Amino acid sequence: DTALDSGFFVRWMAAAAGLVDREAERLTELDSAIGDADHGANMQRGFAAVVKALEAEPPGTPGAVLVAAGRQLISTVGGASGPLYGTLLRRAGKGLGEAPQVTVAELQAGLRAGLAAVRELGGAAPGDKTMIDALEPAVAALDTSLAAAAEAADEGARSTVPMLARKGRASYLGERSVGHQDPGATSSALLFAALAEVAR
Ligand code: ADP
Ligand code: MG
Ligand code: MG
């Protein structure tokens, strides 16, 4: 099993920032259909802050990279997604502990703990049309490969189209939320696409 060091995790966050920049308009478009049209800007602001913080003070372990990234997302993103993504990364980072290198299996275990914390914080379950619908299958597929996780996240994001939103702003729309892809599930797929990209 490949060992992933802190440099890999910094590159992951930089790649995520790059994909978020590239797809910001799309994220905002999706959020304008069933939310308040700020998801692209929220994610751009958050990940720009993450990259800046990691450059200013590069953490020495994978765990510390994720904890620092999560902290930035919580403090810079005003929307619901900031605390949720922040919790995912911070909790995953804590799970990785002080190890200088981690395996994909250890990353999966960390992300499982992060995902549980996101579910506890947001109260959403699979099928509620949220980021959980992309994160859950992606984390589950990590024991196959990073590419499989990226593919599962994308499929999960697309699976939100016919769903009725039960959490977040989109839930205010009731039936009118049906037929649109969830913005947060879409950005979650970007996060896993970035992970697979950095490993290639
Ligand atoms: P806001 O809705 O506050 O403007 P964003 O637009 O940045 O925040 O993020 C919206 C995304 O956050 C949604 O598309 C959804 O995926 C996710 N989300 C919202 N509420 C929850 C929740 N309770 N649990 C999980 N994810 C949620
Ligand atoms: Mg929004
Ligand atoms: Mg908002």
TrEMBL record:
The keyword Transferase applies. Pfam families: Dak2. It comes from the Bacteria. The keyword Transferase applies. Keywords: Kinase, Transferase. Transmembrane segments: none annotated. Residues 7-197 form the DhaL domain. GO terms for molecular function: kinase activity. NCBIfam families: dha_L_ycgS. This is Dihydroxyacetone kinase subunit DhaL. It comes from Streptomyces lunalinharesii. The gene is dhaL_2.
